[in-house]
Amino acid sequence: MISLTDSQKIGMGLTGFGVFFLFFGMILFFDKALLAMGNILFVAGLSFVIGLERTFLFFFQKHKMKATSFFLGGVLIVLIGWPIVGVVLEVYGFFLLFRGFFPAAVGFIRRLPFLGSLLNLPFISGPS
């Protein structure tokens, strides 16, 4: 089992609550307060999990500046009060930031019992 420090456990909780608030805010027709709370908790949780320095280095790499601009700009726009535009910018920035992790995540999901068999169907898995 993976051992986590206390700050990483706190970070996992904050990140989980952040994702919950973001999801719940979208379910409730883009509620500004819930989305803002979710954004703040998600970014704070991420920095607790991987550390402040590594979070800063991750977001502000030269080749990720466009993605960081979209993601943090979307957070700012949600905080200003335009939730739909902000969430669209955040999602685009999120995909640009984490696109390197998606193949690894899909590879992991392919090894899970039920989801793996769904992802290996011919019309989902793509051309071989």
Automatic annotation (TrEMBL):
Pfam families in the cross-refs: Got1 (PF04178)
Any one GO biological process: retrograde transport, endosome to Golgi
Keywords, comma-separated and alphabetical: Golgi apparatus, Membrane, Transmembrane, Transmembrane helix
Membrane-traversing stretches: 12-30, 36-60, 67-85
InterPro entries tied to this protein: Got1 (IPR045176), Vesicle_transpt_Got1/SFT2 (IPR007305)
Entry's localization field: Golgi apparatus membrane
Coiled coil feature spans: none
GO CC entries: cytosol; endoplasmic reticulum; Golgi membrane
Signal peptide start and end residues: none
Topological category with respect to the lipid bilayer: Multi-pass membrane protein
Role: May be involved in fusion of ER-derived transport vesicles with the Golgi complex.
Family designation: Belongs to the GOT1 family.
Protein name: Golgi transport 1Ba
